[in-house]
Fold:
Amino acid sequence: MGRTIAIVNQKGGVGKSTTAVNLGAYISVAGKRVLVIDLDPQGNATSGLGIRKENLGASMYDVLIERVAMSEIILPTEVEGLFIAPATISLAGAEIELVSAMSREFRLRERMREIVDLYDYILVDCPPSLGLLTLNGLAAADSVLIPIQCEYYALEGLGQLMQTVTMVRTHVNAGLEIEGVVLTMFDGRTNLSQQVADDVRGFFEGRVRVFDTVIPRNVRLSEAPSHGQPINLYDDKCRGAEAYRELAAEVLGE
Ligand SMILES: Nc1ncnc2c1ncn2[C@@H]1O[C@H](COP(=O)(O)OP(=O)(O)O)[C@@H](O)[C@H]1O
Ligand SMILES: [Mg+2]
Structure:
């Protein structure tokens, strides 16, 4: 059965979508069948995987309001074995429309039921908030992966995030595990990056796995989305590519 990993951090710009796209790509390069579910109305994972949002018919919004089945919106990508359930700005409406719905936090989990066994890994790219969409991601997930940017305020908000995970375990999804924390946008030239990395490892020590792999700040990683390609297609040799390949191996337990 497939493993569903929600990629969560309520801060924007920490590398969630970059991780969903590129970790997903290298897990499929390793021979697994992978689905990325875009749960962010900004649709960055969608465009990052080469889907033109203007031309889309149905998307995650239509799935969550139960207008279409999940299987009807899933698209193949340029990477063999990698698929995307796309999102557009319309998804912002679901957050509002679902507020009064029954079992609103379980909607994604229910909608995923028909497809969950078709993939080895499902990565859910969550929006930068702890609102209803992220709650749906956490309710549907086996585990949560937390990207943390090596920046000054990195630790801020982590307490709230950990409280949310505890709350979800109590009320919504008792089995939710923490897959791990991944340090992103590490800049080896600055003391700050090293300091933040040390602080984050200290904060989680003995409680939560922090992956050995650190994702460097790498301009190729930021260029790839504008070409609609994951990094394995855009520049397989750059340092960012190497890092996501290593992260995939760690997640796969290799
Ligand atoms: N390791 C990295 N090196 C350089 N740029 C990065 C890296 N990771 C992400 N970025 C860029 O930073 C911005 C925010 O990343 P993104 O993955 O969209 O964050 P989030 O999904 O958490 O909001 C994007 O422009 C992305 O291309
Ligand atoms: Mg994002």
Q: What stands out?
A: The chain has a mean pLDDT of 96. The longest strand covers residues 177-184.
